[in-house]
Amino acid sequence: MNFKYIVAVIVIPVVFILDQITKKWAISNLKGKPPIDVIRGFFDLRYVENPGAAWGIFGSVDDSIRKPFFIAVSIIAILFIIYFFIKVKKEQRVLCVSISLILGGAFGNFYDRLINSYVVDFIHWFYRDYHWPTFNIADSAITVGVILMIIHMLFLEEKGREKKRDESEAKEMTEETRGNNTAETTRLE
């Protein structure tokens, strides 16, 4: 089994399981209770049921429309990400890890939507009156995966192209050298 599949088989379930364990913990320890300060004035843990997408978008849409819509969109997105993962070359290690993180997070939030019609969020960052939307481990994995993907596209993909170009040029030079040596040998005879 090559690197990309080993990474996927490890990362996707680990992200999914961590996400589900922490959400169960949030339900048991935070639901119906006041937030728990982690860093007073900046970071706390609080229970939130998010029926919408990122930042609660479409959260107020009727359940009969919202639930099938988000399930269909999630399935399409997961299938697209899997297709993209299959197309990734095993040498593109950072991309393999990033897509595995995104898939693990996507499965975690999809499972919540399928079972509950909402996603459990509990990580809350803020400063005074500025609040970042509450999120969870799946969202974090997706975010880290997207950041790694951007790093790959901006910095690593070009290096890969340069390496292939250099290898191709070296191969051409070697073939030319062999061709020249054969021609000289023929002339000498």
Model description:
- The protein is an alpha+beta fold and 189 residues long.
- It has one domain (3-156).
- It is 68% helix and 12% strand.
- The chain has 4 helices and 4 strands, in the order αββααββα.
- A 4-stranded antiparallel β-sheet has the order 1-2-3-4.
- The radius of gyration is 25 Å and the shape is elongated.
- It starts with a helix and ends with a helix.
- The mean pLDDT is 87.
- Taken from the alpha-carbon principal axes, the silhouette is elongated
* Spatial strand arrangement across the major sheet: 1-2-3-4
Instruction: Measure the end-to-end span.
Output: 52 Å
The largest β sheet comes out as: 4 strands, antiparallel
Which residues form runs of ≥5 with pLDDT under 50?
Answer: none
Report the portion of residues in β strands.
5-15%
What would the average pLDDT be, to the nearest integer?
87
The tally of beta strands, per DSSP, is 4
Order of helices and strands: HEEHHEEH
Share of helix among residues?
55-70%
Number of helices: 4
The SS-based structural class is alpha+beta
The Rg value, from CA coordinates, equals: 25 Å
Q: How many distinct domains? A: 1
Short account of what is shown:
With 189 residues, the protein is of the alpha+beta class. 68% of the residues lie in helices and 12% in strands.
SSE arrangement:
Elements: H1 3-29, E1 36-39, E2 43-50, H2 63-87, H3 93-116, E3 119-127, E4 130-131, H4 137-188
Antiparallel strand pairs: 1-2, 2-3, 3-4
Helix pairs in contact: 1-3, 2-3, 3-4
Q: Which terms summarize this structure?
A:
alpha+beta; four-stranded antiparallel beta sheet; 4 helices; single chain; 4 strands; 189 residues; 68% helix
